[in-house]
Amino acid sequence: MLDILAIEPDSIAVELGLCAGDRLLALNGEPVRDLLDYQRLVQAEELLVEVERADGELWEIEVAKDADEPLGLRLPHPEPEQCGNNCIFCFVHQLPPGMRRSLYVKDEDYRFSYLYGAYVTLTNLDQPSLQRILTQRLSPLYVSVHATEAQLRERLLGRQGPPLLDQLQQLVAGGITVHAQVVICPGINDGSELERTFRDLVALAGRRPNCRCNRRGWPPWPLSRSGSPATAGACRSCARLRQQRHAPWWRGYRPGRPSA
Ligand code: SF4
C-alpha cells in the first residue's frame, strides 16, 4: 500500500477522480509495496486499479492506456534499508562532523542498487528479497565484494553475512548482471587474496569480465611514508592477472586525477 502524495495535472489520475491522501493498494491484483512494484506494474496497458480513498471507501477502477503512459500519481520514494556492517574502511565513519546529513546515511538496499547503482554487500539480503530480485529481474545490481574468502570478508565487513558466492551464483544464474567492486585494503585483501577473489569472480562469470582499476593514473600506493610490500603485491597481482589466458579485460579510469 502506498500513500498518494499528489496528482499530476491533466493526468489519468485526475480523470479517475483520485486525490492526494488516497492510498494505492494494488494494480491488476498485485499489491503495490513500493515504487519498484509500481513502476513495473503500471506498464500494463489494461489496469485494474485498487484504491482506498481518504474516507476509507474502496474503489476498483479499470483503466485502458498506452504502455508508456503514466497514471499521474506522485508516490513516496522508498527509505533505504540501513547497513548493519562495520567495514574497517567505512567511508561514512571517516567523514568529518558537520556535513550534509544525508552523507552519514549508511544505506544497504538492493532497491537503491537497482535504481541508482548504489553498491551493496548483500549481507542483509534475505530469501524473499533475493526471490524478488530474480522474479522481477532487478538488473543490473552493484555488489561490494572486497574478498570472496568468507573469513576475510567477515573481517573486512565487521560482520558475518550469508555466503556471498552462493548469492552471486543465484543472481548470475537468474540472469542478473552484477557489477562487482573490490576496495583493496593494503596488507589485508590484496596480494594472493586479491588474486583468489578475481579468480572466483571470473569462474562465476564464466567469461572475461570487464575490469576497471580506479588507481590508474593516481599517485603510487600506499599513501603512507613507509610504503607497503603487500600493496605493491596487489599491483603485481593485477599485472599477472592481465597476462593470464582468462584474465579480466582492464581499462584505465581517471575520475579526476589529483593535482601534484
Ligand atoms: S557497507 Fe561498509 S562502507 Fe558501506 S556504509 Fe556500511 S559499513 Fe560503511
**Helical stretch tally:** 8
Gap between N and C termini, in Å? 54 Å
In terms of DSSP E residues, the strand content is 15-25%
Structural class of the secondary elements? alpha+beta
What would you say the CATH architecture of the largest domain is?
Alpha-Beta Horseshoe
User: Biggest sheet, in brief?
Assistant: 5 strands, antiparallel
Based on Cα principal axes, name the global outline.
elongated
Return the CATH topology of the largest domain.
Answer: pyruvate-formate lyase- activating enzyme
Q: Unreliable segments (pLDDT under 50, ≥5 consecutive)?
A: 223-230, 245-260
Cofactors, ions and other ligands in the entry: iron/sulfur cluster
Could you walk me through the main structural features you see in this protein, from its secondary elements to its overall organization?
- This protein is α+β, with helices and mostly antiparallel strands and 260 residues long.
- It has 2 domains: 2-74, Roll (Pdz3 Domain), CATH 2.30.42; 101-244, pyruvate-formate lyase- activating enzyme.
- It has helices spanning 12-16, 35-41, 110-116, 127-135, 150-157, 164-173, 191-205, 229-243, and strands at residues 2-3, 6-7, 23-27, 30-31, 46-52, 58-64, 73-74, 141-144, 178-181, 210-213, 249-252.
- The strands form 4 sheets. Strands 1, 3, 4, 5 and 6 form a 5-stranded antiparallel beta sheet that branches. Strands 2-7 form a two-stranded antiparallel ribbon.
- Strand 5 and strand 6 form a beta hairpin.
- The radius of gyration is 23 Å and the shape is elongated.
- It starts with a strand and ends in an 8-residue tail after the last strand.
- Iron/sulfur cluster binds at residues 83, 85-87, 90-92, 106, 108, 121.
